[in-house]
From TrEMBL:
The keyword Transmembrane applies. It is found in: Membrane. GO terms for cellular component: plasma membrane. Keywords: Membrane, Transmembrane, Transmembrane helix. It comes from the Bacteria. It is a multi-pass membrane protein. One of its GO terms (biological process) is polysaccharide biosynthetic process. Residues 20-140 form the GtrA/DPMS transmembrane domain. The keyword Transmembrane applies. This is Putative integral membrane protein. Belongs to the GtrA family. The chain crosses the membrane at residues 21-39, 45-64, 85-108, 114-133. It holds the Pfam family GtrA_DPMS_TM.
Amino acid sequence: MSEPGALRMRLDRLAREVAKFGVVGGLGVLVNLGVFNLVRGTTEIPMVRASLIATVVAIVFNYVGFRYFTYRDRDKSGRTKEMSLFLLFSVVGMVIENGVLYTATYGFGWDGPLASNFFKFFGIGIGTLFRFWSYRTWVFRALPAKEAVQTAESFLEQAPRQATRRQPDRV
């Protein structure tokens, strides 16, 4: 395949991946904000704790969506490792997301309903950039490309034939 053709295929695959990630992530944002506002409106739980609860619910929702929709074609062999890495990077994203909300709420005193939703959403956006990179790089690893597997198989098939054709070295 030509260099521009291969690049176009990679860009197309990346665009589809970003779109699927966006669908699951967008629904996860709705779950996150919905749970956040539900907990804030119906309980006396402080804002950042309500946000942490909402983020945990969204993490569970997102894992299911990413594993069975966005990255369903990716390697499924190391499920324990996958879930551990997913949780690790999700916790880092949660710290990013809620760190923004914490700073706005307790650092600047911006704790009204509109401000808290804005900074919650802003924190989700920053955390999402980190999550996209980390999930695709470390958690939902791509299976080897078909071309690479076929090349390796053909190389392995040719190796025994070449070995039988060689003449022994004469001294």
